[in-house]
Design a protein that fits this description.
By secondary structure, this protein is mostly helical. It contains 6 helices and no strands. The protein has 2 domains: about 30 residues; about 60 residues, Arc Repressor Mutant, subunit A, CATH 1.10.10. The longest helix has 19 residues.
């Protein structure tokens, strides 16, 4: 699976990256990167509940290079760490 950057998405839409970001935020209420992080965290919640994978593997599968980066975003958006989330399930 290929990771698309802002420039790639803007090129597909045939608009500038800046204009793409403005229009994306207008349509979704958040910047493209914020949206991507939220989608990754939502997917990670599914993987944590359904799969018996280490947290580091879940982080990698949803697109984070480092577990610490994943955990920081997870806690910011979910309110608990991935480990705490699992314990609540």
């Amino acid at each position: 699976m290929r990771n698309f950057g802002l420039s790639d998405l803007a090129a597909i839409a045939q608009i500038s990256p800046n204009y793409f970001a403005i229009q994306f935020k207008r349509a979704t209420g958040m910047a493209p990167h914020q949206y991507l992080i939220r989608q990754r965290i939502e997917r990670s919640k599914e993987l944590l509940v359904r799969e018996n994978l280490p947290i580091a593997e879940v982080a990698y599968q949803v697109g984070f290079a480092h577990q610490s980066h994943f955990t920081r975003h997870f806690k910011r958006l979910v309110g608990v760490t991935p480990k705490q989330f699992l314990m609540q399930q």
